Amino acid sequence: MRMSPLPPLNALIAFEAAVRHMSFTRAAVELNLSQSAVSRQIVHLEQFLGRKLFIREQRQLTLTRAGETYALQVRSILDDCVNATAEVMKSTGENELTVACTAGVAQFWMAPRLGDFRRQYPNFKLRLIVRDGVTSLSSFEFDIGLYYLKQAALPGFETTYAIPEKVFPVCAPAYLAACRERYGLGEHQKLEPEHLLQETLLTLEDAQSLWISWRDWFRYHDVTISPATQAVIFNHYPTLVEMAVFEQGIVLGWRHVIDSQIERGRLVVASNHWASHGGGYYLITPDERRENVATRCFKRWLLEISPQGE
C-alpha cells in the first residue's frame, strides 16, 4: 500500500532544524547547506502542506499555529526514525563492540595490536569502522573511538587521554641516504627543516583540520613553506605512507602510530625536529550510549598498552 501524502524527508529535516534554531541561517550551518537551500526546502514543504509554517519578519522567524503543531509531530517522528535506525545500525549485545578510528590509526596502530585484545577476550565480537574525521561520526554507529583532539573537550562525547602527540618527518632509508649525499651530510646526520623544503612533501588533504600539516610543522620551526615546494597531495594517509616507503618523498609521522613502520625498517626518522599542537589521541565514547562489558574491557586494555606519558 502506497503511503500518501508523504512529505519530502529533506524538507522535514530542514524544518526541524529551522524550528530548533529559529533561524534558517543557523539551520543551514548545521545541515551544511546554504541559507537559500534551507529556505527553498521550507517553501517546498509549505506548498506541499498548503499551509504557512513560519511568519517571516525582518530578522525574526515565528511559527504559525499550524507550524507549532506540526513541529511537535515532526520532531517526534524524526526521533523515532533516529532511534529505529540506531537499533538497526548497532546491536546492544554485552559482548559486541564497534570501534571507530582513522584509516592511519586502523592500519598502523590498531591492526598490529588487536590480535592481543582478541586473545584476551576471544568471546567478544569486534567490528572496526574507519572514519577519518571525528566530526563525520554518528554517535549511534560505534561504541568507542580513538581520535586525535587538540583538547579534551568534545561536545556529546566523554574523552580519555591515551596517546601523546609528537609529529616528525619520516621517509624510506634509501631516500634519506640519497638526501645525505645530496646535502653533504654525515652517515648519521638527519635533515634540517631547510633541507626538507627542497624535497617532495607527501601531503594529507586533511579530512580533519585538527591534524598538524606540513605548513604547521614548518611554522613551529620558524620556516615559511614556499608555494613552489614540491608536494604530492592525497586524501588517504596510509597511501601517503606507502608512497614514502617506495621512496617517493617524505611524509609526516605521528609517534606511536607510525612506530610499527619504523620498527620494521620500512621507514626512518628523517629529521630530529618534531612538532605538537599540544593535543593527543583520545578514547571517545558517546555520552548517550551506555558502556557495555566489551566497551569497558576494550577501554581498559587500550589504556594499559597506550604510552600515555611518553
TrEMBL record:
Quote the Pfam families the UniProt record gives: HTH_1, LysR_substrate
Q: Which organism is it from?
A: Salinicola corii
Q: Which GO terms describe its molecular function?
A: DNA binding; DNA-binding transcription factor activity
Q: Which UniProt keywords apply?
A: DNA-binding, Transcription, Transcription regulation
Cross-referenced InterPro entries: LysR-type_TF_proteobact-type, LysR_HTH_N, LysR_subst-bd, WH-like_DNA-bd_sf, WH_DNA-bd_sf
Domain named HTH lysR-type: residues? 7-64
Q: Which PROSITE patterns match?
A: HTH_LYSR (PS50931)
> In the UniProt record, does the keyword Protein biosynthesis occur?
no
Where does the record locate the signal sequence feature? none
Q: Highest taxon of the source?
A: Bacteria
What protein is this chain from? Answer: LysR family transcriptional regulator
The UniProt family comment states: Belongs to the LysR transcriptional regulatory family.
